[in-house]
Amino acid sequence: MTATVNESMRNGVDTATLFVTLDAVKAAPQAAKFQFRTDNQWIDGTHSRSTIHEFYGAGEERTHERSFTFDADHPAVLVGRDSGPTPVEFVLHALAACMTAGLANIAAARGIRLTEVRSTVSGDIDLNGILGLDPEVRNGYQNITVRFTVKGDAPADKLRDLVTQSQSRSAVYDIITNQVPVTIEVTTD
Amino acid sequence: MTATVNESMRNGVDTATLFVTLDAVKAAPQAAKFQFRTDNQWIDGTHSRSTIHEFYGAGEERTHERSFTFDADHPAVLVGRDSGPTPVEFVLHALAACMTAGLANIAAARGIRLTEVRSTVSGDIDLNGILGLDPEVRNGYQNITVRFTVKGDAPADKLRDLVTQSQSRSAVYDIITNQVPVTIEVTTD
To answer: Cross-referenced InterPro entries, in alphabetical order (chains A, B) (predicted)?
Structure first.
């Protein structure tokens, strides 16, 4: 039994549970509807704080095991106080984390044991956009580059395939490279 | 002199410095080229950790005043250990923080004193996409809703205008609602 349990755990991924989850969603596609949420409060200047706790998924309201809180700000060179990373840096973190989680799951499902996954994500932005100084310049990143180092007990081409598959199934990669409709509502009292 | 200094500070935004920065970028548009970066390391399963410290901007390599570290993971219902928010929740945080920072800057520039800015951001996602179970379902958010509460010493329409202008100048709003090219490189040794 111990051998079976160990075989089920690969890269820290419980592949047995992963496949059970896949089967459960196949049987009841509605279970795959999730809603994630963040509450944000302005502190001062460019500094704000988000709390992440509740979400909806697999048919019911849920909570993370604890409440997560994150500050964001601008550095002094962008007229802030550097109380947290800039919002655009959190986007790079989200992309790296999403592709890495997918990569570990895919490797586990394919029977590949990973020994190391590192990535550096960089995003180029021209602030003439958000400063409103050049209408030809977009507000967001002009391009993003992700550099992965992946090591494990598989040939190089199989390790590269993990990144390709993770890219093709990454939620954050899709959000960044495609368009998501955003609705904004405002209350003033 | 004190009155002048106080007048320059509004909503925690040093508007004098803000306008000096705008003028500096107008005079030397190249100063507006920034590159932000995140280093991520896989920990185990769907758990990874990002470090945010160095960036390039205003003509030179820079660092945040300290190094910021963030964990991301999946909750148990998504076969993780809940060691951090999911990557897609960080995207919601980034959007709220970006629009809120912009809103405070724009209000300061327009002479409006804010007393409260709160937002709740929610994103709907159907995991049939990332699980590869339905090719018709996208991997990322199908839609995102931002609900702002904005209070300050201006009429409701002027407060609403702040959100509209922040939306039109937000880097993260642009990243999410438009397409950003992403290049991925892989090293396996």
So the answer is: KH_dom-like_a/b (IPR015946), OsmC/Ohr_fam (IPR003718), OsmC/Ohr_hydroprdx_reductase (IPR052924), OsmC/Ohrsf (IPR036102)
